[in-house]
Structure formats: C-alpha cells, structure tokens
Amino acid sequence: MSDALIEGKKLTKRFEDFVAVDGIDFRVEPGEAFGFLGPNGAGKTSTMRMISCVSPVTDGELRVLGMNPATQGSEIRARLGAVPQEDTLDLELTVRENLLIYGRYFGLARPVIRERADELMSFVQLTDRSGDRVDELSGGMKRRLTIARALINRPELVLLDEPTTGLDPQARHLVWERLYQLKRQGVTLVLTTHYMDEAEQLCDRLVIMDGGLIVAEGSPRQLIDQHSTREVVELRFDADDDRAKALALISRTDVPHENLADRILIYTADGETEVEQLGRSGVHPETVLVRRSSLEDVFLRLTGRTLEE
Amino acid sequence: MTALYFHVIERNVLAYRRLWGIFLTGFAEPLLYLASIGIGVGALVGTVKGPGGQMVPYDQFVAPGLLAAAAMNGSVFDTTFNFFFKYKYAKTFDAMLATPLGPVDVARGELGWALMRGTIYAAAFLFFMAILGLTSSWWAILCLPAAMLIGFAFAGAGMACTTFMRSFVDFDYVNMALLPLFLFSATFFPLSQYPAGVQWIIRCTPLYQGVALERALAFGELSWTLSINVLYLAAMGLIGLHIAGRRLALLLQP
C-alpha cells in the first residue's frame, strides 16, 4: 500500500484565517483516474496546487511520486503535467512555439521537443494551427493546447484543474476523448470538476469535497448507491396550490423527497411504481420525469443546494 | 544540462524575434540624447572639468554619462513594466513555475534577459562613441562591462520594486525616481557644480556610481574609489535579485 502516486494525510491549507483545505486524507493509485468533485470554494484547487508543488502545504503530510513537495518540488514537477484552471499559455508565441519553449523549461533537447510537439499537435487536433498566435485560438483550442503542453515531458501523472469549464459541448467531448486515451495509455489522471457528467465519464474513483473537507469517497457507482437511490422522479406543477397539495400528500408518506423551487424530487428504487402510487393518492403533476440517479443527485444532497461562491 | 534559468532567457529571445521594431528602439534613445545634448549643447558649452581635473570637450564628458543612464533606463524598463506585465497579466511566470523552474530561476532568467538586451544596446552606443572620437583611452573598452554592471544593479533593484507593485499606476513612482537620477547624477555636468553638502548626497545615489565609473574609464582616469562604485552596484544588484526571488515565491506560490 505504500506505492501510491499521491498520498495526503491530514493535508491542510490555510490562508491566514481562512481554512481552504481542512485536514483531508486521500490516496491516488498508479493508473487510475481520480477526481475531486465539489462546488466552488470547496478546496479543490488549493489541493491541486499543493499536489502540483506550486503552493506550500500548511499542515499535514503530502507525498507525490514518493517525494516531498516541500524539498523536492522541482524533481516532482519534472515528472508532472499540470493543466491549471486558467490557461497560462504564452500569448506572445505561436501554438508550436508554446510547446517548444515549454519543453525547454523541462530541460529537454530541441530535437526531442520538436518531434513530440508534432505528435502532440496532432493528438489535440491543432496541427493546422501550429503557426498561429495563441490569442487567435478559440477557448476550446486553447484548452487543448494547454493539455498538449502539459504532456510535453511525457508525464506519468497529469493534474487537470477543471479541464472543461467554459467549453462548448463539442470541445468538451474532444477533451474527454483525449483524456480517456491518455488513461488507456496508463497515465494517471487527477482532475477537479464540478460537472457530474465529467466525473462519471472519466473518474474511476472520486472524492466529494465541501468546505475544505472530504464528505464522500468511492467510485461514481458506489457513491450513487450509497448516497442516492436507483431512480429519481421529478414532478413539476403549473399551479402553486396543486403543488402544495401534492407536497402535503408526499410528506405524509415516508418517501425521501426534496422540495425545490421548480420541482419536487422523489428518491426511490422504482420510479414507475412510485408514480402510480402517488397517482392513486391524488398527486397529479403536469409533468413527470423518471430518470436514473446521477452523481449530481449525490453531489447536491451532500453539498447542499445553497449557492456557494 | 544548462542551468534552468537559461530557458527563461530563451523564452524572451523567442518572443522578441517577432518584435524587432521594439527591440531596435532601444538603440535610438541614447543616440538621440548624444546628438542633442552632447553635440548640440556641447558646441555652446565648450569644455568642462573632466574626471582627472583637466578640461575636456563637453561631448566627451557627457557621452559616458549617457551610457550609464541608458544602461539604467533599459534594464529598469525591462524589469518593471515588462516584468510586471508578464507576472500579473500574461501569467508567463505561472506557466514556468509549473515546470522544474522555481521562482529564483525566473528572477535570474528575467534579470539575465534584461542584462543581455542592455549589453547589446550599450555595445552599440560605445561603438558610436568610439567612431565619433568621444573616447580618449583604451580603458574605454571596460565601459561595456561597467554598463553591464549598472544594468545588473538596476535590473535587480527594479525587479525587487516591481514585486511590491499592485497596478500600473504604481509605475509613476518609478518615473519619479528615474528622472531625478537621470538629471542630477553628474550625468550632464560635473559634481563640483553642487554645493559641498549636496555633493555628498549625490555621491550616495546609485546612478552616480555608474556615471563616475563610466566617465573614469572613458578617460582612462583610474583610481581606487572606482572599486567603491563597483561594490555598490554589485551589492545593489545582488540584494535586489535576492528580494525579487523571495517575493516571487510569496506572490506566485501562495
């Protein structure tokens, strides 16, 4: 059990009085895709920055690739690929030059970098833009270039902080596809996201963070099984008194449910049966949707529905 | 393997390959001053007292002063405005710090770049001085390393100051500091023009060290006091570099 790629014990990050990460324990095994899921301000980015060795650990222990970030930051970073939340591409350089100079920061020889740059540009489908300045690229292209750049040193561990935030669906799917390919090549991925579909698509295992703490841990399937039901029924009402009546009826049963601004959610193993029973008790919503439970349900149940900024 | 900070210099060379116009403007400024003040005003002034006490033509007197001032201006510009932009807006350093490079490498590399650029300008200026017959001694060759030392001192100090700035508005302070240094560091007239008390104040200011050093070398008037100027400038650069490295770590790796 000691050959984890990353291991945090009571890992803590404080900024003066503010506790961003509050003593979390986690480990990432070689070859897995591991996710930190949580709302804004949960401590995901602070955790990622500590793992990337660009932010000192305040308290607790952290080992990355078996080394100590406090004393071996440079050696660790040499073997990491980091995709920060905000692109830090060099806007004064072209697509190709961005890859070339980044490779030089790792001390790689020019011929090696040139070869890898060509490979990586085709990997992220930017070959035909290789001579363009970076500020001419779309958001999705910039993101892909940032990912390509993070791979220039052939890292065994790639850290992605919200890799697809702000991208349109096509761009997002292309990024997922590429990340999935990396995973199949045996690269260990660690990512943060607040997109449930992203976590479900990419992560073998994930932790849900809230307020600097880990509130749940497991595979996407396990988390859904533990913290939600198999299915969720969504009921919508046009008239407010219909809705109030329905809510009163549902409250009298012991069915787990939630009253949201626009709909009522009912957590159940069998949605169809539940809808039938409700119909017999006199609940007649305008629209009914029976769907599989998703990580989103887990996430919202665990981290609450209040907007956190 | 070359030292890591070398790659920071490499990045700047790469970026400036497309900015030749901007790069070339650095040659023009000191030459314009030389043409206007050295040659134009020089014709009115005639001779002034040189570093060895002898009377010397004004254009020969003022040229080394302008060389020192150009070395200061060039390196301050690179390590304040350009450095601030890269640090705060372009996120250039954030990208570097995700690699094996550390804050100290970034500080060294940026200083190295400022120095490299300044050295090219200083060499060109010195070349023109020689062609125009404004140097009177072979010691003048050492004006180039002296200009590099001045560049080092002001690059270190400039970079250290920049790490304390919050926005571009703060750069007004840089101009407020540079202009009096430029005008009153015995750049344009001998120190003896000042009353004795003021002379001592001037002797303590940084650009004066550079002007004294350049002028003495241009005329081949060496003395032991030059070592004080050298030590002053070297210490200024080293302290600045040290502060800049420490501050960058605090700012970029919170």
Give a summary of the structure in a few sentences:
The complex is a heterodimer of chains A (309) and B (254). By secondary structure, chain A is an alpha/beta fold.
Spell the H/E element sequence of chain B.
HHEEHHHHHHHH
CATH topology of the largest domain in chain A: Rossmann fold
Oligomer: heterodimer
Proportion in β-strands of chain B: under 5%
N-to-C span of chain A: 37 Å
Distance between the termini of chain B: 29 Å
Helix share bin of chain A:
25-40%
The largest sheet of chain A, given as strand count, sense and whether it forms a barrel, is:
6 strands, mixed
In the residues of chain A, how many domains can be counted? 2
Radius of gyration of chain B: 19 Å
* Contiguous helical run count of chain A: 11
Number of strands of chain B: 2
Name the CATH architecture of the largest domain in chain A: 3-Layer(aba) Sandwich
- Main beta-sheet strand count, sense and barrel state of chain B: 2 strands, antiparallel
Report the largest inter-chain contact: A-B, 31 and 25 residues
Low-confidence stretches of chain B: none
Q: Taking Cα atoms only, what radius of gyration of chain A do you get, to the nearest Å?
A: 23 Å
CATH homologous superfamily descriptor of the largest domain in chain A: P-loop containing nucleotide triphosphate hydrolases
- Count of domain modules of chain B: 1
Morphology call of chain B: globular
The low-confidence runs of chain A, each spanning 5 or more residues with pLDDT under 50, are none
